[in-house]
């Protein structure tokens, strides 16, 4: 039996959220996206304090949902065998509302996620602290009960999607919208710099962009409305997916179109640790990688030395190159030894899965290579090629 082996070597390190950048006269707030060896691959985390005094919670930064979902300490869900509220190797934290001046309302809250997690509790309101600053009246779901599928640990969720995607009974200003309402930022927009999971942390910049983190120009595309003419999620048109083999050493490189029949629209979902694509596209990718494919098991193991190839994603005028080396997850045997093929070559797994229903979902693996601005004020996405492992910073307010 083959199992995943986390390839990132970055140790777990929590940097404090950065306060509003007053020294530059800018109304922006920046927070690290934490890469941890104690979570599954391609899991982007942020850390925040809830209430006064602040109770620290670490959770998944999720552009694919719209609510903050935080466990209530000492509740039934924090007694589940898969809880990480406290006393575990990887402790995400939980909130005890009467310890931090949080207002718990009688309004019920319930939500569910595509991985099968179902959670319910009540609505709460209070301060969410970002380093030296705090957003004073943030609404979130304080969950006490629920069900977790096997091998699915309980993790707080920092959902920052569009308001119309909220799970609450009545729509409310979620975290980015409330930050604008309280004057912490000037626009309901944030920039996502995921960065290579094998290396340093990424970052999220609320209300601004960092031109040192991307190359070329930011290209815009509209966020698509659903059949009800609403915007519940960050879905955009996806125009091209091409494979460039490492064998293409002579310019111009030959690109293989992996979607000759066209592409679905796609969700940009930082909370997805994979990339969910139609079976026809994954079958074409498997052919190019020299491996197997079927709808039940997906793309088979690939040789790790195929990492010099790349995928090229097209969105209107934006193009993003994703090196295969950023996707490779080394496989191991049951005894922990490296898995190899018959020729002794190490084998890797790709973080892709089959989804023949629209929208597709491009998660954290794709977002490593993209710099993305999520702009709800103008109902648009801006995208450029990310500068991986950038050390400089040139922050501007957005727009």
From TrEMBL:
Protein name in UniProt: Peptidase A1
Organism per entry: Macrophomina phaseolina (strain MS6)
Active site as annotated: 62, 269
Annotated signal sequence range: 1-23
Family: Belongs to the peptidase A1 family.
GO biological process: proteolysis
GO molecular function: aspartic-type endopeptidase activity
Entry annotated with the keyword Transit peptide: no
InterPro entries named among the record's database cross-references: Aspartic_peptidase_A1, Aspartic_peptidase_AS, PEPTIDASE_A1, Peptidase_aspartic_dom_sf
Record's keyword terms, sorted: Aspartyl protease, Hydrolase, Protease, Signal
PANTHER family named among the record's database cross-references: ASPARTIC-TYPE ENDOPEPTIDASE (PTHR47966:SF65), BETA-SITE APP-CLEAVING ENZYME, ISOFORM A-RELATED (PTHR47966)
Peptidase A1 domain mapped to chain residues: 44-384
Pfam families on file: Asp
